[in-house]
Specification:
The protein is built from 7 helices and 9 strands; from the N terminus they run ααβαβββαβαβαβαββ. By secondary structure, the protein is of the alpha/beta class. The protein is globular. The strands form 2 sheets. A 7-stranded mixed β-sheet has the order 5-2-1-6-7-9-8, with helices on both faces. Strands 3-4 form a two-stranded antiparallel ribbon. The structure holds S-adenosyl-L-homocysteine and magnesium ion. Magnesium ion (MG) binds next to loops.
Length: 221
């Protein structure tokens, strides 16, 4: 992997204490060790290749891990999410949070919490939300990415779509980071493993760089 050219941003300590606490305090689905591995991947990436992009912003937690590294390198993180929640975030599902429902519409809306998180972390100039369906955004996307983080819908269809539509935008030398990869079905759902991770390795275009919990960091040759 290209070594970091970001001043003050070593990959073994990619965040300051304050950045780390802000990320840990944010609402979301990213255990601290995996979040740090995400930040470390960003610190090792060659950020001169292009901006970073994540699919699945939710309430801004993963953006709090990636954003500070992007800011130090004078680049940005685009955060794609329709902010209506994945299937598993809907009422009646395990990962539903009733605070995140727009009471007038009766629909999930994570955008206000996302904006609050990013504001409080001082990342508004660095983390740029794109509110929309992942595939629709991908169809119009043309900029090569230094780092693509896939953490969107975890059903077979959204996971396959995210891989198929976004993978071509990772720049040669860039990183593809995938969350919630569970080789053992006892640990969690299959699609990120079967429909993103395995196809990426089978494509022959990516080499695995690190494994931390359910986070996988791959590099485009
Ligand atoms: N990265 C976040 C967690 C993401 S949860 C964290 O660190 O906490 C998954 C998110 O993906 C949800 O907010 C959901 O709205 C979004 N999502 C699911 N399917 C999507 C799709 N097809 N297009 C855009 N966003 C989607
Ligand atoms: Mg996740």
């Amino acid at each position: 992997m290209a070594s970091s050219t970001t001043p003050g941003c070593p990959s073994d300590q990619p965040l300051t204490e304050a950045e780390r606490s802000a990320a840990e305090a944010a609402r979301g689905f990213m255990p601290p060790d995996e979040g740090l591995a995400l930040a470390a991947a960003a610190a090792l990436a060659d950020l001169s290749l292009g901006p970073m992009l994540e699919i699945g912003g939710y309430c801004g937690k993963s953006a709090c891990y990636l954003g500070p590294v992007a800011g130090r390198a004078d680049t940005v993180l685009f955060s794609v999410d329709h902010h209506r929640g994945s299937e598993e975030n809907q009422p009646g599902w395990e990962w539903h949070d009733p605070d995140l429902v727009d009471p007038d519409l009766g629909l999930m809306d994570t955008l206000p919490e996302f904006r609050r998180t990013i504001h409080e972390a001082g990342l508004e100039s660095v983390v740029i939300p794109i509110v929309g369906e992942s595939v629709t955004v991908a169809r119009h996307w043309t900029t090569p990415l230094s780092l693509l983080f896939i953490d969107g819908g975890h059903g077979v269809e959204p996971a396959s779509n995210d891989y198929e539509w976004w993978m071509p935008h990772v720049a040669p030398g860039g990183l593809l980071v995938i969350h919630d990869v569970f080789p053992d079905p006892a640990d969690g759902g299959r699609p990120p493993y079967e429909n993103i991770y395995l196809p990426a390795l089978a494509s022959g275009r990516f080499q695995q760089r690190s494994v931390t919990g359910s986070l996988r960091v791959l590099q485009h040759y």
